[in-house]
Amino acid sequence: MRQRTIAEKISCTGIGLHSGAPVQLTLHPARLDTGIVFVRSDAGRGAEIPARIDRVGSTQLATTLGHNGSGVGTVEHLLAALYGLGIDNVRIELDGPEVPVMDGSAAPFVFLIRAAGIFEQRGARRVLRVRRPVEVRDGERMARIDPCRGFRISYHIDFRHPAIGRQDLPDFELSEGSFERELSRARTFGFLHEVEALWRAGLGRGGSLDNTIVLDERQVLNPEGLRMADEFVRHKALDLLGDLALLGLPLEGRVRVVRGGHALHQRLMRALLDTPGATEIVTSGRGTPHPEGSLAEARASL
């Protein structure tokens, strides 16, 4: 249970989902206790944006981070890949305002990280352990986190669409292998009438059947169909992982979400941070993890 980074730098190119603009992304190894930091190389001297919940600027359509006048959008799929593969420290350099959408899933980023290699660092990994339940609600939407050994997700969605309907991902236990096999390939999705509205608003310019599951009133329009029957709920769980990465530490607990999205995920995390005694930080070495303190006490150092 030691901190990890990537073994060497590696790059890819793609387009932004909403901007449609080409962008180059480079992952760099990072030092111990650095965390995940985005670097906008096109913004003067290279504006740095920590991947932290207090840097979230918007949750509309995607998760967008901002700091000192610079921003980076659609960060959730890359952050999910880093979280799922247990990467603690990395610098993410971009020459544009949005992470490339690639195929709409986290799988291309998993491939990129695997190709760079994973390097185990000397420092022990810190884990955010949930000590008491925290829950937020918004009408029929609900997100809750409970104490649990390890890390588990339960996710439920309910869309009035014949190709989606009700889907459940019950009690999913996260590991590198389970993430790569069962979540990483799930793609983002949208409805044709919404896509057309986005285009009219100057958004979604990079969206296509190559990187988004698109549905009309009855069916999936992508010629190849779905990668898995419940790809929709699996992608929602993928987005949740990307948002949880903004806590700055891997989580020990069980998260349950009903009809969620980026905004509800953020509300749950903020409630977790703001509830006294809800969490503690434990440091994992060769033996049993031992308490280090509360998240509130350590927020300035995250």
How does this structure look, described?
- The protein is α+β, with helices and mostly antiparallel strands.
- The chain has two domains: 2-124, lpxc deacetylase, domain 1 (Ribosomal Protein S5, domain 2); 127-301, lpxc deacetylase, domain 1, CATH 3.30.1700.
- It has helices at residues 76-84, 107-116, 176-182, 192-200, 231-244, 262-274, 295-298; strands at 2-6, 10-15, 22-29, 36-40, 47-50, 56-58, 64-67, 70-72, 90-94, 118-130, 134-138, 141-146, 151-159, 165-173, 189-191, 213-215, 251-258, 279-284, 290-293.
- The strands form four sheets. Strands 1, 10, 11, 12, 13, 14, 17, 18 and 19 form a nine-stranded mixed β-sheet that branches. A five-stranded mixed β-sheet has the order 2-3-9-4-5, with helices on one face.
- A hairpin with a 5-residue loop joins strand 13 and strand 14 (165-173).
- It is globular and about 50 Å long.
- Residues 298-302 have low confidence and may be disordered.
